[in-house]
Amino acid sequence: MAASRAIRLRRAAPSVQSTSAVLGLAAARARKSPERLDYEAALEVQSAGQQELQERQMRRESMIDKSTLPSLSKYMRPGEKASEPLLAEDALTARQLPEQPDAGPSSVRMAARTAPKATNIPPLPPSSATPAKPSRKGKERALPPPLEAYDAAPPQSQPQTISKDNPAVSARALARAMARANARRKLPSLTDRPPAAVASLSSKPVGGAAGPRRNPVGVQLLSEHMHNQVFPGAPLPTPPDALLDISKWHLGQHGLSGDGAAVLPEISLDLPPLEGRNVRDHFHALGTYASEPYLSAAKEFAAAELPPIPQHWEMSRPGWTRYGRDGSVTPVENLDGETVVSFDVETLYKLSPYPVLATAATPNAWYSWLSPSIFDTPPEDEPPKREPWDKSTVDCYPHTLIPLFKNNGPAIVVSHNVGYDRARVAEEYALERTPTRFLDTLSLHVATRGITSVQRPAWMKHRKTRIEYESNTAESIAMLREHAEDTGDNWLSESLREYSTDDDTPGSNWEDTTSLNSLAEVAALHCGVKVDKSTRQRFADETVRHASQLRPELDKLLDYCAEDVKVTHDVYKVVLPLFLTSCPHPATFAGVLAMGNSFLPVDRSWVDYLRKAEAMYLELREEVRLALRSLADRLREAGPIANDPWHSQLDWSPKSARWADGASHKTKEAAPEAEVPAWYGPAAVDRTALLNNQSKRSLLPLLMRMRYRGYPVFYLTEHLWCFKAPIEDIPELIPLHGAPVELSPKDDRLADHLETSVFFRVVGPGTARRSQLLSKAGAKDVRSGLLTTEYPDILAAAVKGELDDKLDVLAKCAQDMLASGGENDWGSQLDWVPTVPGAAEKRKKEQAERGTWPKWYWDLTVPVTNKKVLAGELDLTMRKTVAPLLLRMQWHGYPLAYSKEHKWVYRVPLADVSNDPESSLYADKRVVLSDAGDKRLADDAYAYFRLPHKDGEGNSVGNPLSKAFLRALEKGELSSALATDSDKQLAEAASKAVNMNTLCSYWISSRERIMNQFVVYNGERGMILPKVITMGTVTRRAVEATWLTASNAKKNRVGSELKSMIRAPPGYAIVGADVDSEELWISSVMGDSQFGVHGATAIGWMTLEGTKSAGTDLHSKTATILKISRDAAKVFNYSRIYGAGKPHAIQLLLQGDGKLTRQAADQLATDLYKQTKGRKTFGPPDRHGTRYLWHGGSESYLFNTLESIALMDRPTTPALGCGVTRALRKSFLGLGNSYLPSRINWVVQSSGVDYLHLLITAMEYLIAKYDINARYLISVHDEVRYLATEEDKLRTALALQIANVWTRALFCYNLGFDDMPQGIAFFSAVDVDHVLRKETDMSCVTPSNPDAIAPGESLDIDALLIRCPSLGESRLPPLPRVDGGATPVNIFGNKMLASHQRYVTAQADTRTSPAKAWLVEQANRTWAGEIREQIPQHRAVL
Fold first, then answer.
1. E strand intervals along 767-840
2. Helix, strand, or coil (residue 385)
3. Are 147 and 174 found together in one domain?
4. How far is it, in rounded angstroms, from Cα 1227 to Cα 1210?
5. Which residues of 397-429 are buried (b: 16+ CB within 10 A; e: fewer)?
6. I need a surface site. Which of 661, 828, 889, 1301 has the fewest CB within 10 A?
């Protein structure tokens, strides 16, 4: 067919002199795919002009030493010669193509005439393996080898070659050669596609009278009316037809076809006109409008200098005081008149969330603010204790917000973690948004110099090593200085004075370019200053019971607060320019500002929610406690049962009972006068007992309320003297004291402290434990200020060994502790059991009468000091190790066992152990019990296997009743043997205990964060200002501990209705939408950009046109491969797109199916990745590493695109051109630690953040342009919500739809598309609701909320346009026109090049040979480029 067409063309075109040119025209007219023409005949399609161009290029490069270039020899058949390296890029460029808007068949034919290389046959690098054939100009040229030349296995027969003796080759002979070659192998071609896929190959969208506009792969596009508004002006160059051939063959290989694609009604909406020539200019104009005047003011503040911190503060009155540059001190009501301020707030957070003092600074003045509570008289009595859920502030504690601005214009507030400070500003609790915006230096740092959670351990190790090095260096210098002074060595002294231990040289590793997020760490990184945060502990001091106690220290505390303000400004001057350089688009800045104004309206139902959820939790917890108590009592009374797999693990050795059976377990109402706490008993008899060694070692430091580094000291059984610190101080203390210590079972009474605190040894890592604090060894810590107390005189005497003279003072310390009743950190460690001095003999007699208990039961009893458990009750919860044994828990019917070495395992009879590696009971997987504490488990008749851990094999399970095993409990994989016991009482007790774990799992994990929400009420209405970190991760995603992680309401989860407690005030509605498959679409459209056609890749087509019913959407395809549910498949798809590899997929499979073996999971994951990501083929290594290519999978194009961005020297997002943090930049990462999954994840998620910023920026513009009464509420990743008045709720919904159209359009435009699919242009629906929830029809019924919430309404674009056809009349004039600039990131360059076609072809093919050939070609280009750069240097030398 090709030959006959060539003959006819030659007769019709006498000016064409060569058979090769004629065949080239035939190929162009037939529009064959690259694979349809044999590579042996491919060179005949090249014109003589192309050959001359290549030869000229080769002559220019003849001076290059080709021995240094990589060769194809490793991919050739035996006996073949390696090809010459490819030195020049394809000659065809966009400028060489005819300037025609349509790249359809006629333009392709014209291109074939005018530009010989504009062919759809991608030539491989020339090879000398095939005999040369003289051209018509008499020059020898080599034919490229056939594609099989790159296969690993040798071919069955050699291809037919062309003899030198027969220079004249007819078209018929070439056609026969092509037919024979194609018969030998199956090459990709259009005939391989499903019939429906063989549509018109033209790249022009089709539509009109025949139906909606569709592109060549069947994706429905915007209507003509919408398209002309969104993509005005001249069209972008259309992709060559060769790319469409490859796309359609690729889609057919994955069973995808345009037949049956959904037909959506065309939308003809009149959009607001673009504010520019195109959508790129449009968004630049919108970003400039939304970010000003704040952006200009922010830049000016970064260049400004603050006045000096005042030497003296006004401390005699509450409110604001201004300190001018001229020394004036003036009381002011607020900061009106200032445009940008650096701001910091301090609170007595253990008393009240309201502020107690604040400072602020501007280029003009300093300001200080004091709470009125500081000047109040403290009450005589402590406020009464309240219910845990009652978080209302007591009047005697601080309860005043800060008036920052009142009648001010636009202003910016700068702070570190500014969301915390914003929540203390009075004006922010109004429904109407103020003109004040908040800028967070923490967010600016994270976006430019932050690190991922994966990098954190390596960074911590690096910092520890650096600190040790600096410490050793400092010690060495100190020794040298001492030596110089002793010897009088002036030269050495002068050298040491010039020497600096601070290395000012910027680090070349990523560890040296980043830090953690605290102000101290960030200041050290960016400014090289050390921030002293020790004063902060005063605001957390439990001895401060009223704000007035701070009055004598106000000068020091205001200095501390002001220093934070100054340091924050110093950091701001560095990080703002970094951020604006990394994220230059004004829409990014505008989006960040808007997100900093989030708010959540509530009403009095919030208090009811807390009360009901907490009450139900406490009720269920009590039921579980009673159920477990019943099981424990019955087991104790029954005694050990022979060969019982659970009870045999308990320690049945006798211990003296704490009380007699049948005795009352209630606390005594009043103790006799003679009774004293047990710790005071010896001193009550003889005061000198306070001076004995036992008291010095473990009692006196507690009576003296000693602190180490400002933290209260604790005496732990295993670690001896330690101190308790808040969790947030861990990063600062680890380098000094090593990792936090774990509590031993004997210290279980202190377990409650672990909810908010950790324990460190008072000594450094690698140092012996400290058994005494009051000794001469502690003198050094006393002198250095590390060890402090409220009784400094006693401490000084103790370290000198002179305590005998302080007996009276010690006795007073003991009396003070008695008066406190143990209500502090020190007293809680003492034994408060009432005892009669000298009654030890009486107690022994009573103990003998009470009898004994088994030790496991005795260990569950608690001292009277435990305030959460009544005296005489058991401290028995689901977290105790004994709980699963009492409940007789089993895994797939096998009893659980607790191993000291391996934690929770399950016992299997040897008869059930399998030799099949595919079995979960494979013999090689059993654990070996080598610990001495596991002797009671040893039994030759059984084997033990680890419980499956969520983090994969080899990890030990600490608690089988934890949240990680909820699914296993619901599926019955983990169950209680008692649940089916014939004893109904036992069965009921076991069921209650297990069910409570499921019901309360959400509330247990979230209750502290939820109950500590800072709610400010104004009458019946209240408001929460969530402490959002607008860019809290390196991907610039927002972070907030409660609301951005809140789950949806579930029927079997107490308190899970949390989100529905956010309620619109009367007259308002919550309007919002979820971006449909946001990050999946972003990823897939990046892959489609290789073709310039929406849906050209399998993943792109499935995202746009795949349906659940037909099983052609991505989640259905994955579910079929893995044999799991479609919902479960979503987790695999998103984690894979975020860069997770096969090990993560194996881990997810093992978590989802406890019976699945690792081998079976590995095979499923392998199949999944083979069909999705495809094969991974490596090319020749070079100095940059080894290139590779994904090919043959449905997502190969996607991952090659994502990785091509991630591996750039300075990766940027395609939409807004935002750069990656330096810790993930290629130039700072070593070859062995590239963190590629994190970088791929950055490309996807950071683009998703771009999407959100663009959407918010467009909404800011539309709200202002059409005077819509709405404001930004909150966003959760791909969800965005606004609060609008009832009158404007539909206009807000329509504005969201228009903003979405523009946002999608910018993504498309910047990726090389000038059209957009209809299916993704609009939100599938916009929700108009009166509460915050995922879906408007969710009833939000939970165990704590039995009443269903009335549904809202969900409007698609058609229903919305019926009720609100337009936004109304514009109130803004056209914006100033700005140039949007070039595309933020050019991923693939010119798609018209034949090299790009070869690249696309290699990705579609499942065989390795095309991928290897392309990789070798790229390696040759790299080497040639490097050598070409060296030519001028060599010429200069010559």
1. 787-788, 834-835
2. coil
3. yes
4. 8
5. bbbbbbbbbeebeebbbbbbbbbbbbbbbebbb
6. 661
Name the active-site residue from 38, 90, 241, 344.
Answer: 344
Q: Are strands 1326-1329 and 1068-1074 parallel, antiparallel or unpaired?
A: antiparallel
Domain stop point among 1007, 1033, 1054? 1007
Query: Could you tell me if 479 and 618 lie in one domain?
Result: no
- 1335: closest CA among 1327, 1324, 1343? 1327
User: HSE of 168 in the Cβ direction (CA atoms, 13 Å)?
Assistant: 1
Strands (E), 526-641: 600-603
The amino acid that residue 1092 corresponds to is G
Instruction: Give yes or no: residues 447 and 461 share one domain.
Output: no
Q: At what angle do helices 1126-1137 and 1114-1122 cross, to 10 degrees?
A: 100
pLDDT at 433 over 90: yes
What is the dihedral sign for C-alpha 1258, 1262, 1265, 1267?
Answer: negative
Closest alpha carbon to 1270 in 1294, 1248, 1239, 1242: 1294
pLDDT at residue 37, as a whole number: 36
Considering Cα of 1197, then 1198, then 1201, then 1204, what sign does the dihedral take? Answer: negative
Spatial separation of the C-alpha atoms in residues 1066 and 1127, rounded to whole Å: 37
Residue 342, in any domain of the structure: yes
Structure tokens at 698: 């473990």
Q: Are residues 499 and 617 in the same domain?
A: no
Give the structural domain span for 173: 2-188+1412-1433
Question: Strand runs (DSSP E) across 874-1024, as ranges?
Answer: 889-891, 894-899, 903-909, 942-946, 974-976, 1015-1018, 1021-1024
Query: Taking all residues of the chain, what is their mean pLDDT, rounded to a whole number?
Result: 79
Written as one string, the DSSP assignment of 1202-1271 is HHHHHTSSS-B-TTT-PBPPGGG-GGGS-TT---HHHHHHHHHHHHHHHHHHHHHHHHHHHHHHTT--EE
Minimum mean pLDDT range among 510-519, 610-619, 684-693, 983-992 = 983-992
The answer to whether residue 618 is domain-embedded is yes
Q: How confident is the model at residue 791 (pLDDT cuts 50, 70, 90)?
A: confident
Q: What is the spatial distance between Cα 894 and Cα 426, in angstroms, rounded to a whole number? A: 60
What is the sign, positive or negative, of the torsion defined by CA atoms of 693, 696, 697, 702? positive
Do 554 and 657 fall within a single domain? no
User: How far, in Å, CA of 1042 to CA of 602, rounded?
Assistant: 15
The torsion region of residue 1267 among left (phi > 0), alpha (psi -120 to 50) and beta comes to left
CA 750 from centroid of its chain's CA atoms: 33
Last residue of a domain, one of 1007, 1029, 1047: 1007
Task: Tell me which residue of 569, 570, 566, 547 sits closest to 357, measured CA to CA.
Answer: 547
Q: How far apart are CA 390 and CA 218, in angstroms?
A: 60
Give all strands (DSSP E) within 507-599, no chain letters: none
Same domain for 102 and 174, yes or no, is yes
SS3 1384: coil
Q: What would the mean pLDDT of 814-842 be, rounded to a whole number?
A: 80
430 with 552, same domain: the answer is: yes
344 is catalytic: yes
Nearest of 1300, 1334, 1183 to residue 70 by alpha carbon: 1183
* Strand extents, DSSP E, 166-298: 206-208, 211-214
Q: Residue 177: inside a domain, yes or no?
A: yes
Give me the number of domains the chain comprises: 4
Residues 372 and 497 in one domain: no
Give the contacts of 463 (CB within 8 A, at least 6 positions apart): 511, 735
| Range ranked top by mean pLDDT from 727-736, 926-935, 1231-1240 | 727-736
CA separation for the pair 854, 626 (Å, rounded): 19
Q: Distances from the Cα of 1120 to the Cαs of 194, 1108, 1117, 1123, in angstroms?
A: 21, 12, 5, 5
Given a contact cutoff of 8 angstroms between Cβ atoms, the answer to whether 127 and 142 are in contact is yes
122 pLDDT exceeds 80?
no
Q: Which burial class, exposed, middle or buried, applies to 652 when counting CB atoms under 10 A from its CB (0-12, 13-18, 19+)? A: middle
Q: Give backbone dihedrals phi and psi of 377, rounded to 5 degrees, phi first.
A: -90, 130
| Continuous segment of H or E residues that includes residue 726 | strand 720-726
Predicted confidence at residue 1124, as pLDDT, reads 67
